[in-house]
Amino acid sequence: MRSARIVKMRTACVLGAMALAFAAGGRVSAAEVAAGISGPIGKGIWCYFADAESQKNALPSLAMEKARPGIGAADAATPDGPRFEAQGEKTIIRFAVAPNTSLYGTGSVAGPVLRNGRTVTLWNTDAYGYDDANPSLYQSHPWILAVLPSGKTKGIMIDSSYRMTIAMPSLGGGDIVVTVDGGPMPPVIVIERDTPQEVVKALAELTGTITLPPKWALGYHQCRYSYNPDSKVKEIADGFRSRKIPLDVIWMDIDYMDKFRVFTFDKAQFPDPKGLNSYLHGKGVHNVWMIDPGVAADPSKFGPEGYFVFEQAMAGNHPVQKADGTTFFGEVWPGKCVFPDYTRKETREWWGGLYKDFMANGIDGIWNDMNEPAVFNVPSKTMPENNLHRADKDLGGDGPHLRYHNVYGMFMVKASREGIMEANPEKRPFVLSRANFLGGHRYAATWTGDNSANWYHLETSVPMALNMGMSGQPFAGPDIGGFAGNGPAGGEGKLFARWMGFGAMMPFARGHTGKGNIDKEPWSFGPEVESTCRDAINRRMRFMPYFYTLFQEASVNGMPVIRPVYWADVQDPTLRSEDDAFLIGNDLLVVPDMVPDRTRVSAMPRGNWAPIDFTKSDAAEKADPDLPKMFVRPGSIVPTGPVMQFVDEKPLEPILIVNLDEHGKATGTMYEDAGDGWGYKKGDYLLTTYHAERSGGSVVVKAAKSEGNRERPKRNVNVRVISGGVEHAGSGEDGKEITVNIKP
What we know:
The chain has 3 domains: 3-207, Immunoglobulin-like (Sandwich), CATH 2.60.40; 219-554, Alpha-Beta Barrel (TIM Barrel); 560-741, Sandwich (Immunoglobulin-like). 21% of the residues lie in helices and 24% in strands. It has 14 helices and 41 strands. The strands form 9 sheets. The protein has a 9-stranded parallel β-sheet with strand order 26-25-23-20-16-15-14-28-27. The chain is globular.
């Protein structure tokens, strides 16, 4: 029933609209009106409703970490809000955008980082081999970041999980037009701050932050569809170790299962999963195993022993239902399947409980795939929109799949995460998800989906990860090398090397390829590519102290790990559309040559950004063209370390990279803890602020401030001061002043 949604207007306007509609023989549609009820819900954060009726009928927020706050009284500080319009079952929401306003966000989207002139459909979709013409991909983030020429920024959240389309105007200005396909008129949240950084932090106040991941999850990951049998898994792990290429995680795709039945193992190919995982752990390698939502539902395939997951699902009344209340069946990898209704607490608890015995096999992490949910052999690629979810009351209660589709994956990973934590309460969980929703970063990392081995997907990897970060998801990255296909004939190795060069510096760094493709391990393309890949992954390991510090920051305030270049100077218009280069934190700039022989030069922020390289043995040696150039911000200290074959292979002996500003000063921080477990929440961590200052012909570096109860290790600290294009080295005991002489 949508009649209750019609926006109230002046009587004359209503009568005029009705007269026109009846004369044309069409339906009555409310005229566009400004938000009728608005007020603050936090400092610099406002909520807007179309009218009192819309406020009364508003559904609970599925994006926010806690219930949507009540609004205060509107005052002079309340900015102009959106305009609402009802069009049958749809809601149209418009926001005026001033000329030269740069638009970002909208989550997992292909194409350039700047979203002006683009239209995005938020409807989680299995989008194998997508391009930027695809209106919808695997995740939905109803969130827009609007940056004015001055740098002042608005964040706009349309607080609805229904399918919606977001059409963004060009840089010439106009309206952002949002079309919501169903449900009551949603509230709109607007955040205003002086910078995009502050807006993203405010978003985290509403949607929460990631939990600090286990440190091993920040290393390099290797995957394919599939490594089987188990001897192949061991061979890959041994290959990394014998070639001295760092590896922290190896992944098991769907073929490890018995007939694709989740929570089972193929006894012929994986007879001893616990023994396999023990072997990997002995090599310093962690493991991640796939679990899909589709539960095999064809008893004729089960044999006399049956299939416990399906039997429990039916006995507990856990599957999603059709509109008539009967069980919905759909086809996925196992064939006929049922799909757990993760919007129900009872179902999430049942699903989570399945992980206890599964994780007892020494499993470290979980990969939830196909959870849009994907359904085979139907035009929609998913279940019917009128399917019934019997959702918890605090989620809004019973509702159609049209409402809960975009959050299906999010509630699946919530259930998985909670089950893993119950199984291994002493460890930090790691979950990767293909499908998700705004706020779902609280439960899982993500990747950019089933990309292809071509130069387009290489190029779009960076802007996709950047917009994910600006949409609240800091833990993201592409399938390095491309999942679908082999790459350009004769140029597969060049593509893989170039992709590994910058992909190893993404927040989530995983090489992956599909079934039937050529091998895509770092050594698969010959010694030259292998050398590039080794150097690229070695770089990541050297910068691991910096990465870990940034993930700790993300867990506190929601800041993305990688950031667009314009964040270095929000008032510089030349940086607004840069989407090849990117920042890691505030202090490290990565400048890849994305495509061979391209003439476009990446936009660089102003200032003395000093080049840094760990790969060349001397200044005369030519830099590897497949590795990105890297620069350190003036006034910064970047914590690095030695190469390790896996994180925490040996105790850290920090290497501090120092680039002084024009005043001869620099600062930086380094975070340390046990790398896993929850001791850091009780103070078992060490956060050190280092300070450097030039005095005459020397630079003095010291630990200026410390936080946490963790004892500072007795260790040596190496310092590299970059001055005038020359590096000057020094060392000393951590915690004491270290003097580096600057040679003329």
